[in-house]
Amino acid sequence: MNDDALTLAWGAASDRGLRRQLNEDGYFAGGGAFFVADGMGGHAAGEVASATALDALRPLSEIERVEPHNVEALLELAQDRVRAIDTSGLGRGAGTTLTGAVVAYIDAGTLTAEEARNHPRRHVITRALGGRDEARADFRYIPIGAHDRILVCSDGLTGELTDARITQIMLDHPDPQVAAGRLVEAAIGEGGRDNITVIVVDATGIAHETAGTSTSPRGGFADEDTLPRD
Predict the structure, then answer these.
(1) Bigger pLDDT: 64 or 5?
(2) Domains of the chain (ranges plus CATH)?
């Protein structure tokens, strides 16, 4: 397979759920970069933190071949910007977790399939931003080919649905946008106790990209908001 044969189609959906007053989640999808941020802090702090972190990562969509050092540099920028958020009138500090996937083609010479399976830094990118700790990213290198599907989500999905249920919904709906919407709906149907954000990315052989959407917020009652750790 050559570098041009593998293209991406994606869909996204986000909902505040049934218990949160605000949707503090956010997502970014562009080029080969797909990120979900789960804001912490309550009131507007988490919402601002997730949006701030994702905005700092947007340059990844313009890089032809993303390397770990690109992600790490922008995460440091995101950390600085989140730490700089003024929360004096909110009573709580701002923070956000960050999970994502960046598609870089093995055939382009980045690394072989065997290296991807055994790379020492093979962790999903996920780390809390806004606290006092260093903004270090974890990486997991995973081979990807045509017909593979990637799910990036906040824990509002995995907290409500089992892996088996998520897998079945993913298998039942070939269109990535439909699959993303059905996953969010299913999580809400199980209680929707947290914000829910989902990006579904398909590796295809067709030059097609589905624009992501955000589902409309639903009513509900306030629940205890999460807090960033110092």
Answers:
(1) 64
(2) 7-204 (3.60.40.10)
